[in-house]
Amino acid sequence: MNNPLLRRVMLAVAAPLLAGLFAVVVSAIVLEVSGSPALDTFRTIGENGLKLETMIDTLNRATPLFLAAVAAAIGFRMNLFNIGVEGQYILAAFLAAVVGSKVDLPGVLHVAVIIATAMLVGALWSGLAGLLLVSRGVNEVISTIMLNFIATGGIVAGLLPRFIDDPTAANQGTPTLAESGWLPDLNGVVEIFTREIGKGRELTGVLVIALMVGVIYHVIINRSLLGFDIRASGMNPLAARVGGVPPKRMIMVAMIGGGLVAGLVGMPEILSDTHAYDQGFIQGLGFAGIGVALLGRNTSAGMAAAALLFGFLDSSSAVLQVRASASSEIVVIMQATFLLAAVVAYEVVNRVKQRDEVARAVRATTEMASNEAAVSA
């Protein structure tokens, strides 16, 4: 291909397209083997996805996934594997719900206190893993996994009984937040451009916070000196140190930054849905966010697209279960296949790009040598 720009564009879209095609093929094979018509299942998913209510569900499910992905991606940019987003957001949501239920403030201040509490708790819990790494050399993978268990199985499980609002309730939890601590939904904004949203669906206002986080993440990582230091330390720590970038400080910045964002992951539940922390509080978002970050290549736009994809598949699983057209587990298979295929496809595309760069360097060197020979002659 003679057009370098067109080739770069094609290489950029090749990986996700190949991953999507592979995931569809594998899912179709699994469906047929399990006795469910693949075409009917995909048609059901497609028809359901065009409904406004499904789009609202998709956005609601994608919002915490995107926040979890950004939290993990901040560490990934530093070549740190922050596996502790799960524990960070659960502990942050619990303590934010407790604090929010005990204060009585005007609406804006009440919501601000809840959000600030969640971010502070997430940052402190993640920063603890960073401190263990820089002071004692404890690998962040080990420390964050252990801190997950301490947060969920220790602190939250141990403290929740002390703050239960109704001991006789089937789903025991903290007291419900006062309405001043509820974040308004975005239904009114959506309905300006569409019809009225039915079936009790409410688009979480945390979506606005997630969009702001995505923009801030992009600007800091790609347009600031701090972002350059983080990326440089991640790509080549020795060269960054020689260039005057303190590695320990960058580790703490990345871990605390990831924790700040991780604290927001549970806010859709606390501010927009249940308005409390209970025993049915949603879990698994931290680990799912790692997959979204990997699929989105740690970029804001890529992670947003991956979160929407995972959110759409999650919302489709409920429809498949209701209509009994296929097992809802097919959604999990599709998500896992997307992720696996994307990792392989991105690696293949990267090798093609490297080969192209080598070829361009060779051509440039040859042309330079030819020009010098012509001048000498």
Uncertain runs are none
**What is the fold named in CATH at topology level?**
ABC transporter involved in vitamin B12 uptake, BtuC
Outline? globular
CATH architecture: Orthogonal Bundle
Main sheet overview:
none
Structural class of the secondary elements? mainly alpha
Oligomeric state of the chains in view: single chain
H-E order: HHHHHHHHHHHHHHH
Q: Quick check: average pLDDT?
A: 90
Q: Write down the domain tally.
A: 1
Q: What does this 3D model show about the protein?
A:
The protein is an all-alpha fold and 377 residues long. The protein has one domain: ABC transporter involved in vitamin B12 uptake, BtuC (Orthogonal Bundle), CATH 1.10.3470. The protein has 15 helices and no strands. α13 packs across α14 and α13 runs parallel beside α15. The mean pLDDT is 90.
Helix and strand layout, with pairings?
Layout: H1 4-33, H2 38-49, H3 52-77, H4 85-102, H5 107-136, H6 140-159, H7 187-193, H8 206-223, H9 225-235, H10 237-242, H11 247-262, H12 267-273, H13 285-295, H14 300-323, H15 329-376
Helix pairs in contact: 1-15, 2-14, 3-8, 3-11, 3-13, 3-14, 4-5, 4-6, 4-13, 5-6, 5-11, 8-9, 13-14, 13-15, 14-15
